[in-house]
Amino acid sequence: MWTKFQNYYNSKALLHILLLVVLYFICDTFIIDYKNDENAFSQGFYFKLLLSIFYLIGSKEKQSVTQEDNSIDAAFHFSVLVLCLWMGLTTILMESVSISRFTGLFLIFGSLSAFNLIDELLKLVRVKIQSGALSRYAIETTLKIILFATFCFALFFLITGEWVWEIKPFYEW
């Protein structure tokens, strides 16, 4: 059991997750001007979508049978989760972007990625922390609440949103 999530959260995947966090921070803080640029939402979306596609391709790379598992599946799931949560939070925070049911659909996919990440984290917690420990129950409960909250976030957009696609194509910038 240890090797399965050790392979999921291997050092290569964790370094890629750290790289994604740094790239997202640099892009959202220094490159894209969310206050003054009317195309900022579209630019941020395409940047994060492109990174998710790159990680999808990278995570599907063939591994040889004898090679140690160095998959970056965790980084791919993380990139999809961040893309979807970013869409939801940015839609709420930016006045120029209306609440869309399409964002709710994206959030469902993000919730599925969150499920993969949280499921593997729960396995890790169950092996690392003794059964019956209060910290184990607190961590497991927190992770399950986070997963439930992502699905509720998606449901909010699906119920209150309109069928409006706010992402502009490249040629309209």
Structure explained in plain terms:
With 173 residues, the chain is mostly helical. Helix content is 72%, strand content 0%. The model has no long low-confidence stretch (mean pLDDT 89).
Concise synopsis of the structure shown:
72% of the residues lie in helices and 0% in strands. By secondary structure, it is mainly alpha-helical. The longest helix has 28 residues, at 101-128.
Salient structural properties:
173 residues; mainly alpha
Question: What structural category arises from helix and sheet content?
Answer: mainly alpha
Computed Rg: 18 Å
* Number of helical stretches of at least 4 residues: 6
How would you sum up the major sheet?
A: none
Residue fraction in strands? under 5%
The count of strands amounts to 0
Share of helical residues: over 70%
Average pLDDT across residues?
Answer: 89
The string of secondary-structure elements, in order, is: HHHHHH
Distance between the amino and carboxyl termini = 49 Å
Poorly predicted residue ranges: none
Shape: globular
What's the structural blueprint in terms of helices and strands?
Layout: H1 2-8, H2 11-31, H3 40-59, H4 73-93, H5 101-128, H6 134-160
Helix pairs in contact: 1-5, 2-3, 2-4, 3-4, 4-5, 5-6
